[in-house]
Write a structure and sequence with these properties.
Elements: E1 3-5, H1 12-23, H2 29-36, E2 47-51, H3 54-64, E3 72-80, E4 90-95, E5 102-109, E6 116-123, E7 142-147, E8 153-157, E9 160-167, E10 170-178, H4 182-188, H5 195-202
Antiparallel strand pairs: 1-8, 2-3, 3-10, 4-9, 5-8, 5-10, 6-7, 6-9
Helix pairs in contact: 1-3
Bound molecules: fe (ii) ion.
Fe (ii) ion (FE2) is lined by residues 95, 97, 158, 162.
Length: 210
Amino acid sequence: MLYKLNLPQPTDLLEKIAIDIAKSYTINYDSIEWHKKIQKENTNIVSGIFKNRDDLITQTRSEYQKFFTHKIYPTIGLLENINKNVGHTGCYPPHSDRLRHVVLNYYLELGGENVVTTFYDKYDDPTDKVGGYVVKYGDLNIVNQYITKKGTWYNFNSRQYHSVENIEDRRIILSIAVDTDFLTFYNSYKNIYNLSETENKVICGASEGT
Ligand SMILES: [Fe+2]
C-alpha cells in the first residue's frame, strides 16, 4: 500500500544536493546480478543504487526532522535503465528493503510517465530486523499498483515486497528511512497522512488485484 503524505516539498538547495549525488553514481552491476540470479533470463533489470552524503543528511534533517520524533535517515536512490538505447523499459524486481521498515519517497525524476510501483502479498516476518531479500515475480501475487507523480511525498511499509516496472530512463528518489516499524509510524503520524488523495488519485486501477 502506498500512501500520500502532507509534507512540504524539498527546498531548491536540497534538490540540488540530491541531483548532484545521483549524477555521481555509476552503474551498480552487483545489484543487477543479484536480481538476475532468480528472475527470468530476458528480464531487463535496472541498476539500483542508494547512498547518502553528509550534506544530504544535514540538509534533509534541517528540513524534515522537525516533523518526526523518530530519527530520519535520508538517501538518494537511482534506478537506471541501462538498455534504454535499444528501447526496452526496465524493472527493479520484487524485494524487501534492507534494514529499513518505513520509507518516505519524493521523486525528483520519474524515469518515465508510466512507471509503476507494485506491491505484493508477501511481508518479511515482523521480528526480522535485517530484511533485504529478493523474490521471483512468479512466486508473488500483486496486491496494488501505483503510478507516482512529482511534487508529492509517498510512504510505504518497505518490508512488504515491492517492485518498480516500466522504467524508461532514470528514476531519482529522495528517500527517507524512519527509525521505527511501520505500524508505529502510521499510528504516530496519522496527522500527516493524506488518505483521501491516496485512495482517489494514485491507484492504477486497471492492474489492481491481477
Ligand atoms: Fe525498495
